[in-house]
Design brief:
Helix 5 (96-109) runs parallel beside helix 8 (144-155). This protein is 83% helix and 0% strand. It is mainly alpha-helical.
Length: 238
């Protein structure tokens, strides 16, 4: 594995350890800009992302069964269809501007009670449709984590609840994506895969998890909001 790939995985593993996402939302556009094809990007990033999500899922409180059920019924089937369509028909869809708009609105809602209440009411009323769209976005672009973060912060007020919601979604996303890629003969597994998973696990256990635990609730919520705004800006620039 090239040294710069190890550094990319290590850096974004720190972010994913804190916010439940990072390897895919930052790693995907980064590797695409470096010239990697979409299938190879997924093969590189999904295993280490899934590694961190699995460890976090084991350590955190489990989410409500209704949330998992809705993911299984409304989100994951659409994700599989969208991902399969992407590779079977060699399609590329640019959803960056849409994602940027959603992230910006969600981040601003964290600083405005009025906007926050409206966003929460919208997602509550249209929860299953939102999850369906999220599955399609993730299958087409690997960027569904942005919508998942908006969903999590609109549903939960405490950092452990937010993280648990995102981690559960990402864990299921990763398992479904890897299975679909394997069925399509797109997944590339090598020694690099093992190394990247090891790097992600070490970074999470030694650095990322400690940073997450050290953050108080108020600071975490503000950092999360800034994180979404920064990511929205990167999406616009890309």
């Amino acid at each position: 594995m090239e040294l710069y790939l190890i550094l990319i995985i290590a850096l974004f593993s720190v972010i994913q350890s804190i916010f439940g996402m990072g390897l895919l939302v930052f790693g995907t556009p980064t590797l695409l800009l470096l010239g990697y094809p979409f299938g190879e990007v997924l093969s590189i990033l999904l295993p280490p992302s899934l590694t961190i999500s699995a460890i976090q899922f084991y350590q955190l409180d489990k989410p409500k069964k209704a949330y998992v059920r809705d993911l299984l019924i409304c989100c994951l089937p659409v994700l599989v269809l969208a991902l399969a369509w992407t590779f079977i028909y060699d399609q590329k869809v640019n959803l960056y501007m849409l994602i940027a708009a959603i992230l910006t609105f969600t981040a601003l809602s964290r600083f405005s009670t009025r906007i926050s209440n409206r966003l929460q009411a919208f997602i509550t009323r249209h929860s299953r449709w939102y999850l369906l769209i999220m599955g399609a976005v993730h299958g087409l672009s690997n960027m569904g984590g942005s919508l998942l973060s908006a969903y999590a912060v609109s549903k939960h007020n405490y950092k452990k609840e937010v993280l648990s919601c995102i981690v559960t979604g990402y864990l299921l996303f990763g398992l479904v994506q890897l299975s679909t890629l394997s069925a399509l003969n797109v997944l590339e597994v090598s020694a690099t895969t093992v190394i990247s998973c090891g790097v992600a696990a070490v970074v999470y256990l030694s650095i990322g998890n400690r940073i997450f635990k050290s953050m108080n609730e108020h600071f975490y919520q503000h950092v999360f909001s800034v994180f979404m705004l920064v990511y929205a800006g990167l999406m616009i620039v890309s």
